[in-house]
Structures are given as structure tokens and as C-alpha cells.
Write a structure and sequence with these properties.
The complex is a heterodimer of chains A (about 350) and B (about 650). Chain A contains 11 helices and 14 strands. With about 350 residues, chain A is α/β, with parallel strands linked by helices. Classes of the chains: A alpha/beta (about 350), B alpha/beta (about 650).
């Protein structure tokens, strides 16, 4: 497959004539803008771009992007995307899903699309709540979340999307949040990765789960609790005054103080995006004692599913003519004469 | 036909020539009975006899040896005249162990020949088969002609020169048995020799041992004829239409039909499947046909299989998925999306006994409601049912054509019987089929807007009511589709009352107006005393039963539906031209209910849900009741309740 020619577009070219129907102030607006900002930078061709979604607030996304779009059924977007990509590997496929869609009803498909490594971008909008059905707790809701279905607080332990993705064999795992200025950068990296790129995007549901991410995503004063990882750079946060060090005895990361910017003296570890063990540690860091790891946490490509399928098909077809008459008459035959 | 054979009970023993013979091979599920049956089928086809088969095996892959539930059987009906069914009662039963004898003996025709492997009638095996005493020693087998052979020992002797271990040597038993059967029916051994050499190409010793066993079985027949009850029977080839023939199973026919159907439309095919009995065979066949631009995808579940197929259709290929009842249930929501977005899709349902897991390896046709009605909302979908293995080829082509012509999912119904059974099939000439290459929309199709720019209407409809097919990747035609109700024409979200009414009506009319050929009468004529109406794999037994009662002078006609939805336009009038309508089905009356609903006809049910196909004799008896039991006497009424079989064959009480 050849890299498609880059097309010149502007943000406006990626807007549809449809009225956007999210609640005013919803984090989805910011994510939509980030995508519409990113696509021109990628040189993406609207005719060659397909947004595929499941069901939920996030899954209305395709209606608002001027490209091809398929709003499918709950949790199954990865399966549709697999068929689309196998039928036409030249299409640039984006999967839009949410915490309920992708981690609950569609958890199975999320696992398998990552395991197979279909070349696509998977944006999982995590707002830790079922918004479109009016506020029930979701598989990523924290313990004790009060909702119409859990008036006394939820009792089940939340799933961690990025840990799930790594466990499923994902070769690209990143995190961002709706209003972050760095989101387009993360999306660009995801797009550059050949294979399934999984991006968890914390998204503020202002109606049913307002400001639950404020501890690290508030517009002001939360920067110190963000750790934006970058390949080859030390794992520093809080303006470079703190860092993560590898504690070999505990086989894990610990927070250390960095004096005078001398991170080396403090023993701060350097991020390696191809280090799977480090990625596991970063996505599992308990927030609070640790900062929230954001950015491209893991990026280590391997052959894509559709490329392997096409190769296998080409091998199977080698030297074979598609002769239907011969196919029908395969095996032992006999002739009846009049 | 098996009827002639039945009329002459002692035909085999007396060395007279019947027109048809029914043989059942039965053994342990590890004894290779399906393989034996399959090879015997092929040699029978090569001899030019018409045939029908019925593989009947347990759901367990290796059920505990020697047990009653581990018995696997393969029945074949073959003859020198047309054969439509796998036959009712076998003329010959080969029982490889006591359990196989116990399970299958009740079906054997009185006076029939039973061949037993005495080597397997050990104390332990008799206990496992729940025999208090050996049936070889008491009068259990008195009504039959019995041939007691120590097949185990004879096989061991035959393969001795090859130095195999006991276990491996005994594996050749089925070939010894096949050799004997080949001799009994005057079949050539050479094709079997070739097949064994090819099958065991990497283990020449095993091939040679199997060939030796086969030859020994054959030689035994020649020798035994001189002194025992065994006689060689020769059945003349069936005079059939000139042409090239092969044997075909329903699963093969569906696969070939799908490939042919996609090629006639000039479309690549995408097949999404998930393993399930008895549908998996279709995936296994298609995966070997990649050079026909077929992509196969074994999905993580049934839902992903259908969703990926819809995704492929959206991207411009012909999406196909296949399953059996439980898997079809899982695909329901996605089928609704296919109907809503109006994308082509073929769904093959190889029906099995239900509900739930039901009878995975047994046949039933109880998914008709599911096919016609089984989705949320008003979700009309065309349904086609194959009547036989060979017919499934043509039905698959038809399903592909309708899916694309009308931009709709189509369900193709077969069943466990059709999927596994084989029959001789005249190989069609692919050039004889009409080609109709698909045209995708490449330019905007709507009127100019206020600025004079052309507009796109993804849900504009043609004369058939179908919308255009637009592939992503087409410049300038970007648009969004989904499961939410769409505005007429534009396809934009629209929940308004008038629009939903209009779109629901449009979807219903599109499917209702699908061009379906007028219903023909298979046997008999329009109008008369009784119409026997069937669909699917009951074709064979109904056809033969109606033929027999007509010979006795009863005014019964056979009508067999291929198009279950929409139904042929003339069907209502046709059914009303008869005094009575009887609907035999392997369910509790599903087509009967649909016919009553559609045409207000007093269709009467005749039902069997035992996991076994109808027998000709049982249908003949039930049809006879409509004629007061007297051949040619056309008077008499039948209480519809008595038309139900009170005690279906093969059901344990």
C-alpha cells in the first residue's frame, strides 16, 4: 500500500452542515476541534477518511466531521472497522468510542482489534459515566460513584482502559484530555503509528460527572499533577521539581525530588516509548500519590493485521487462476452420456 | 426408490435386484463411520446411481468409547431410479459395536441384513450398551438376516505384514468394512486405492495397510458368497440428464454459490464467520477459495462476524456471514443496522435443533420465525430456503443478487441435514448465468442547491426502491450513515413523525416488492383436494410421499416454497384453490402460521421435531388420512389435531 498523497485542507473543510447536539460545555466539543485541527496537519483526504463509532454521546462524532462516517451499534465499531479496512486497506480509519461503548458492551471487540493490530486510530472518550442514558455509573467510574443506578455509591472496581489496551497487546497507547493543547500532538503521533493506536481521552461530562478530572485536567493549577512523557526525555513533572525513579528493589516507579534541575543526580528514569514494562508501570500509577501519565506512553509498531491478511491472500492465490468452471468441477466427477 | 425395496423384504437375501437400497454404517464416534460413508457415497456416485445421504453423529467429538450416546451413523439411499431422501428403514445395517447395534437396530427393516463385528461384543462393551445378555446369543436378531464377523480379527490378520501396533491396526477396521460393502454393491476399488494413497501420502505404510484391509474385506465378500447369506447386488445406473456430475454437500454448494454469486456481480466477497456447528464447514470451504477474491475473517464472536461483513459491504465488497440459530440470534441487532442503513449482506443460517444450544448436530427447521420476524422494530428482510444440497448453490446466487439489487440483508436458510448430506449434482456452466456487474455511485445524484451546486442524496431510491451504493474513498461523496432514523433522501438524522412513517413504509415496500417468481406446483396440479406445502429440506420426503399417494389415486399436490419472504404473489390464490392445505415441517408449525397470517388459509400443521428428517412412510400415512384411508376415496374429514404425529420417530420418552 502506498502512502496516500497529502491533501491541503483547513479546519473548516472538516465541518459538516449538521447541528452539533452535545450539551453546551461538553468536553466533546474540544475533542472535535482538536481532531478538525489535526486532520489538515496530517494532510488527510476527506474522501479517504472514515470515522466509525458505536453508541453513546461520543459516538455521535462522525456526524460532525466532513468525511465518510458510520455510526454503528453499541460497542461494535472495531468490528465494522475491521471489515472496512480489510475491504479497502487504503482508507484511513478512526474509531470513536467511549468508556461504556469500548470498555463494557464492546470490551471484547476492543481487545481483539488491538490484539490483531488493525491499522486505525481508536479514540476512547473516558468520562467515567453513561451520559446518553442519563448518568448511570460506567466501567471506569471510581468506587463509590453515586448515580441513578447506584444511589448508595458503586461497589465495583473500575477498569483502566490503557492497562486493558496493553494487556490486549496494543502497540500504541497514549493518553490526553479534552481541553489539553497537546491533544493534536498526541493524535498526530497516533496517526503516524502503523497499526492500532489506542488513545484514552479524559472527557468532562458537565451534566452527569462534572469536573471529576479536575485534579489533573483543570484549566488552571493542575499542571503539577500532569506527567507528559516524551521519548528519550526524563520522567519529570511539577515544573521539573519532581521525577519518577526506577526502584529496582520494589520493581516499580517511585516519586523523587529533583534539586536544581539535576534529574540525573536524582536518578530520574528516561522515557523509552518502546519499553513495554515501563508502559505498564506508567498506566498503572495510582493517581494521587503519583501524577497522571499523559502523552505517548507506548509506541512500538509491528506488522498490521490487514497487511498480513493481504500477504496471506496473495500467497494463497499465487499461481492460481480464478476459474469458476474448474472450481465447480473440482474433485471426482463422472460424465453421463445420452 | 426405497419403496420398491421395502415391498420386497427379502430382496437382498434372495439375490433379486431392488431399485434402491438403504445402507446404514454405525459405529463408535471414533470408528470413522462418517469417512466410510463418505467414501462409499463417492463410489456409489461413480457407479452412476442416484443417491441421498444422512450423516447422523453425536455432538461430542470423542464420546467415551462404546457408549450409546457416542454412536455415529451414516445412512445412504441409492438406486437405479431417482432418489430424493436418505431413505426410511435401512435394508442393511453395519454395526461396529454393541452400542451401534442397540441404537440402530430399531430402524432396520424386518428381514434386513445386519452385519456385526463380533470382536467388539465383549462383556465390557455389552455392559456399556446396557445389554444384559449378548444380542448375538438370544433372539434379538431373529427377525433379521445376520452376518456375524469378527471384523476386528479379520482386519488384524489383513494388516499383519505392516507391523502396526494393535491400536493402529484396528483403525483399519472401517476400510475392511468398506471393502465388504464395495463388494456387496459391485463397486470399483481403484478410486479408493487412489484416495488412500493420497490421504496417507506421508505415511505409505498406513496407506498400504488400509488398502490391504479394504481388499481383504472385498475378498471376504467374494468367498462368503459361496456359503453364507451374502449376495452381490447390482443396481443399474440412473438414466439422468447428460452432463458432468459430482457429489456435493449443502455446505459446499453454499460456498460455491456465494463465490459464483459475487463473481456474477463482479464483486469481491468478504466472509465473516465464527465457529459453530453445523455452519463452520462454509468457512472451511471459502478459506480455500481466496483466488476468487474472497477474504475470510474468523471473528472474535458472532456479532463481530456480521459487523465486519457489514463494514466490508459499506466499503464496497459483498459482505457475507454465516451461522446457526444461536449465532443468528446474536447477529440480530447488526442485521437491523444493515436494514436501516440499507447495505447488502447475505446471512446464511444452517439451522439446527433448538432452542438455545438444543441439538447442535441434528437437523430442524425451526428458525423460520427468527428469519422472518426475529429483529427489533419493523425490520423486513428477504428470506430464501434451499430444498437440497445442490439447490443451495442456486439459492446462494439468488441471495447475492437480491442483496445487491435491493440494497438489503438477505437470509438464506439451509439446515443441518442439507449442510452435511450429499447428492449427485450436475455441474452447471458458469457462462449460463446472467452477469449483472454492480454500479457504484460516483457522482452527486441530487438536484442543485440554491448556489447551483450539485447535492448528494445517499437515500434517494430507484424504481425498485433501492438506494445507491457509495464506497468510502469516492471523491466528493462524503456522507454519514448510521442506525438512527434518517431523513428521506439526504440520510441526515431525522426523528420527525412523518419522516419515520415514510422511511418505515419505504423499507417495507422495497422488500415486499422484490421480484419473486410465481409459485409452481411441483407435483400434481393447481386446485384439488389437498396441497402439501413444504419448504427447505423436507422436499425429498414430501415429494416421494405425494408421488406414492398419487399412485394410489389420491388427489394430493406438492408445493414447495423457496421464497419464504416475500412470498410469491400468486401463492395465496394458489393455496385457496385446494380444499385442504397441509404443511409438514420440522418445527411446531411456523410456515403454517405465516401462511395463515398472509393469506387467511386454513393451513393444517404436520410437525416433527425429533432431530431426524421426515420419513416418506410417515408422511404417506398422514396424507392418507385426508382421504379417509381408502385409496381413491376423496371423501372424509380429518381433525387437524390428528394430523400431528403423535409419536415422532427417534424421540426418547
Amino acid at each position: 500500500m502506498n502512502a496516500p498523497a497529502k491533501i491541503e485542507t483547513t479546519l473548516k473543510d472538516w465541518e459538516t452542515d449538521q447541528e452539533v447536539r452535545w450539551c453546551p460545555g461538553c468536553g466533546d466539543y474540544a475533542i472535535l476541534k482538536a481532531v478538525q485541527r489535526t486532520l489538515p496537519q496530517l494532510g488527510a483526504d476527506p474522501a479517504n477518511t472514515v470515522f466509525v463509532s458505536g453508541i453513546g454521546c461520543s459516538s455521535r462524532f462522525p456526524y460532525y466531521v466532513e468525511s465518510y462516517g458510520f455510526h454503528t451499534i453499541h460497542g461494535r465499531a472495531p468490528a465494522f472497522a475491521t471489515g472496512i479496512k480489510l475491504a479497502n486497506p487504503d482508507l484511513d480509519v478512526w474509531i470513536i468510542t467511549g468508556d461504556g461503548d469500548g470498555m463494557s458492551i464492546g470490551g471484547n471487540h476492543t481487545m481483539h482489534v488491538l490484539r490483531r493490530n488493525l491499522d486505525c486510530q481508536i479514540m476512547l472518550f473516558n468520562n467515567e459515566i453513561y451520559g446518553l442514558t442519563k448518568g448511570q455509573y460506567s466501567p471506569t467510574s471510581r468506587e463509590g460513584t453515586r448515580s441513578p443506578s447506584t444511589p448508595q455509591g458503586s461497589v465495583d472496581h473500575p477498569a483502566r482502559p490503557c492497562a486493558f489496551a496493553l494487556g490486549s497487546g496494543a502497540r500504541f497507547v497514549a493518553r490526553g484530555f479534552d481541553v489539553s493543547k497537546k491533544l493534536p500532538e498526541v493524535l498526530m503521533a497516533a496517526h503516524a503509528h502503523k497499526g492500532a493506536a489506542f488513545i484514552e481521552i479524559f472527557q468532562n461530562c458537565i451534566v452527569y460527572n462534572k469536573d471529576v478530572f479536575d485534579d489533573f485536567a483543570a484549566p488552571k493549577g493542575a499542571e503539577d499533577r500532569q506527567l507528559w512523557v516524551e521519548h528519550g526525555e526524563p520522567l519529570l513533572f511539577a515544573g521539573g521539581t519532581k521525577g519518577l525513579k526506577m526502584d529496582e528493589g520494589a520493581c516499580g516507579l517511585v516519586v523523587v525530588d529533583v534539586a536544581d534541575g539535576d534529574w540525573q543526580a536524582a536518578g530520574v528514569a528516561v522515557h523509552d516509548k518502546a519499553n513495554r514494562s515501563l508502559a505498564h508501570m506508567l498506566v498503572e500509577l495510582p493517581f494521587g500519590p503519583y501524577p497522571m501519565a499523559l502523552g505517548v506512553i507506548y509506541d512500538d509498531p509491528r506488522p498490521t493485521y490487514e497487511a498480513s491478511v493481504l500477504e496471506e491472500k496473495a500467497r494463497a492465490c499465487e499461481g492460481k487462476e480464478p476459474n469458476l468452471a474448474a472450481l465447480l468441477a473440482k474433485g471426482q466427477t463422472w460424465t453421463v452420456e445420452n | 426408490m426405497a419403496s420398491q425395496a421395502r415391498q420386497d423384504n427379502a430382496a437382498l437375501a434372495a439375490n433379486t435386484t431392488p431399485e434402491a437400497v438403504v445402507v446404514r454404517f454405525a459405529g463408535d464416534s471414533g470408528d470413522g463411520m462418517q469417512l466410510t460413508g463418505g467414501q462409499f457415497t463417492l463410489s456409489t456416485a461413480l457407479a452412476g446411481n442416484d443417491l441421498a445421504t444422512f450423516p447422523d453423529f453425536p455432538a461430542e467429538i470423542r464420546a467415551p468409547q462404546g457408549t450409546l450416546f457416542g454412536v455415529s451413523a451414516f445412512q445412504i439411499n441409492f438406486g437405479s431410479t431417482d432418489v430424493d431422501t436418505a431413505g426410511d428403514a435401512p435394508d442393511v445395517l453395519v454395526a461396529m459395536n454393541p452400542a451401534a447395534l442397540k441404537v440402530n437396530l430399531p430402524a432396520l427393516k424386518p428381514g434386513g441384513l445386519v452385519i456385526v463385528d463380533t470382536g467388539e461384543f465383549t462383556k465390557r462393551n455389552l455392559e456399556k450398551a446396557h445389554y444384559d445378555a449378548s444380542p448375538l446369543d438370544d433372539d434379538t436378531l431373529a427377525p433379521f438376516t445376520v452376518l456375524k464377523l469378527d471384523i476386528s480379527e479379520l482386519t488384524m490378520e489383513a494388516v499383519k505384514p505392516f507391523g502396526l501396533g494393535k491400536k493402529e491396526a484396528l483403525r483399519c477396521k472401517n476400510m475392511w468394512t468398506l471393502g465388504l460393502a464395495l463388494w456387496m454393491f459391485d463397486r470399483r476399488r481403484a478410486p479408493l486405492h487412489d484416495w488412500l494413497k493420497a490421504k496417507f501420502a506421508k505415511a505409505p505404510d498406513i496407506a498400504a495397510a488400509n488398502i490391504a484391509a479394504l481388499d481383504a474385506g472385498h475378498a471376504y465378500g467374494e468367498t462368503a458368497e459361496l456359503s453364507g447369506p451374502l449376495r452381490q447386488v447390482h443396481l443399474d445406473p440412473v438414466p439422468s440428464e447428460a452432463g458432468l456430475y459430482r457429489t456435493i454437500t449443502g455446505a459446499e454448494a453454499v460456498s460455491l454459490g456465494l463465490v459464483a454469486g459475487a463473481r456474477l456481480l463482479r464483486l469481491p466477497m468478504f466472509f465473516g464467520g465464527y465457529p459453530i456447528t453445523p455452519a463452520s464447514a462454509i468457512l472451511h470451504h471459502l478459506v480455500r477459495m481466496k483466488e476468487f477474491n474472497v477474504t475470510t475473517f474468523q471473528a472474535e464472536d458472532e456479532i463481530a462476524a456480521v459487523c465486519a461483513a457489514i463494514g466490508a459491504s459499506y466499503a464496497g465488497q459483498l459482505g457475507v456471514t454465516s451461522s446457526s440459530g444461536p449465532g443468528i440470534a446474536l447477529k440480530g441487532e447488526a442485521m437491523g443496522l444493515g436494514i436501516m442503513t440499507e447495505l447488502p449482506l447475505v446471512i446464511v443460517n444452517s439451522q439446527r435443533g433448538g432452542p438455545s444450544t438444543g441439538l447442535p448436530t441434528k437437523t430442524e427447521q425451526s428458525d423460520l420465525y427468527q428469519a422472518v420476524y426475529g429483529r427489533n422494530g419493523d425490520a423486513p428482510m428477504p428470506v430464501i430456503a434451499a430444498r437440497s444440497p445442490g439447490d443451495a448453490f442456486y439459492c446462494a446466487i439468488e441471495a447475492c443478487r437480491i442483496a445487491v439489487d435491493y440494497m438489503t440483508p438477505v437470509m438464506l436458510l439451509t439446515d443441518g441435514y442439507i449442510a452435511n448430506a450429499s447428492e449427485p449434482w450436475k455441474i452447471p456452466d458458469p457462462d449460463s448465468f446472467e452477469r449483472s456487474p454492480v454500479e457504484f455511485l460516483t457522482e452527486k445524484n441530487g438536484p442543485a442547491d440554491a448556489d447551483g451546486n450539485a447535492t448528494l442524496l445517499p437515500y434517494a431510491r430507484d424504481a425498485k426502491g433501492a438506494r445507491p451504493w457509495i464506497k468510502p474513498g469516492t471523491p466528493g461523496l462524503m456522507h454519514r450513515i448510521g442506525g438512527i432514523e434518517k431523513q428521506q433522501g439526504t440520510g441526515n438524522l431525522d426523528y420527525s413523525p412523518a419522516n419515520h412513517q415514510a422511511m418505515t413504509d419505504a423499507r417495507r415496500e422495497k422488500v415486499a416488492n422484490i421480484a419473486v417468481p410465481d409459485q409452481q406446483v411441483e407435483l400434481g396440479q393447481e386446485g384439488g383436494k389437498l396441497a402439501v406445502v413444504g419448504w427447505g429440506s423436507t422436499y425429498g420426503p414430501i415429494h416421494q410421499a405425494v408421488r406414492r399417494v398419487r399412485k394410489k389415486g389420491m388427489d394430493a399436490s406438492h408445493i414447495h416454497l423457496r421464497h419464504i419472504w416475500p412470498m410469491p404473489k400468486n401463492l395465496g390464490e394458489l393455496l385457496k384453490s385446494y380444499d385442504k392445505v397441509l404443511v409438514p415441517e420440522m418445527n411446531t408449525g411456523q410456515l403454517k402460521t405465516v401462511l395463515r397470517d398472509q393469506f387467511l388459509v386454513d393451513a393444517l400443521p404436520l410437525n416433527k421435531v425429533s432431530g431426524q428428517p421426515f420419513q416418506i412412510a410417515e408422511l404417506e400415512m398422514e396424507i392418507g388420512k385426508f382421504f379417509d384411508g381408502i385409496p381413491g376415496d376423496e371423501g372424509g374429514e380429518v381433525d387437524p389435531n390428528t394430523a400431528q404425529l403423535p409419536n415422532p420417530v427417534g424421540v426418547e420418552k
